[in-house]
Design a protein that fits this description.
With 227 residues, the chain is α+β, with helices and mostly antiparallel strands. The chain has one domain: Cyclophilin, CATH 2.40.100.10. It is 15% helix and 26% strand. It contains four helices and twelve strands. The chain has a twelve-stranded antiparallel beta sheet, with helices on one face. Strand 1 and strand 2 form a beta hairpin.
Length: 227
């Protein structure tokens, strides 16, 4: 997903026009009621000192304040202490503040992916080399049920700052560290999923509905706190 944020935001204007028939466009919502206009800009990931050991005192909750409302996560401190140590350090350093959730998947799996300030899908904390996986689910059906919060990665031991929020039961390979459970805001994520995602066609430079792409309703992380 190497599209600039300027193109992402301008594409929202035409996203509903490029569908198979006008009837489909007319029936599809393009926003979620109550979401406020986003003001964030894509930017290079900040440099944050990486914790080298598990924190002596781990927070129990994380609150993600978005332009659409709060998402509250109960942290699985005993099952994912390394992940929570790293993610808490990033949150306290304001690493996630004023960034976008850059990927929405609406078929097969149902997730909103966040945690990359560059909004490119490849951003990671500057200087971090990746850390180990933990609390991986057992392989099978519905490995990541609705409400699960897990790390996104590009292979074993490549965790950084990107994570995904599961808004409907999803079956994925057991390769992604589970570190939290959404206790507030799941209904918001379902609404974002219902609006859908889009991609930009490189041939005509127009936006089209897609099952895996940028959220049509932008989700902006304004602030992340842990306690």
């Amino acid at each position: 997903m190497g599209i600039t944020m300027k193109r992402i935001l301008s594409a929202l204007i035409v996203a509903v026009l490029c569908v198979a028939t006008p009837a489909i466009a007319a029936s599809k919502p393009t926003s979620v009621a109550g979401c406020k206009k986003q003001t964030a800009k894509a930017h290079n990931p900040a440099k944050v000192t990486e914790p080298k050991s598990v924190a002596k005192s781990l927070p129990k909750t994380m609150t993600i304040e978005t332009n659409c409302g709060p998402i509250v996560i109960s942290l699985l401190t005993s099952k994912a202490p390394v992940t929570i140590t790293k993610m808490s350090a990033l949150a306290r350093a304001k690493y996630f503040d004023m960034s976008f959730c850059h990927r929405l998947t609406t078929e097969g799996i149902f997730v909103l992916q966040c945690g990359d300030p560059s909004a490119s899908g490849s951003g990671s904390p500057t200087g971090w080399k990746g850390y180990k996986d933990e609390n991986l689910p057992t392989d099978g059906k519905n490995t990541y049920p609705a409400g699960t919060v897990a790390m996104a990665n590009s292979g074993p031991g490549t965790n950084g700052s990107q994570f995904f929020l599961v808004y409907k039961d999803s079956t994925l390979g057991p390769n992604y560290s589970v570190w939290g459970k959404i206790t507030k805001g799941l209904d918001l994520l379902v609404k974002v999923g219902d609006v859908g995602a889009y991609t930009i066609n490189s041939t005509d430079n127009k936006a089209y509905y897609a099952t895996d792409g940028y959220p049509i309703q932008p989700v902006e992380i304004r602030k992340v706190t842990v306690k």
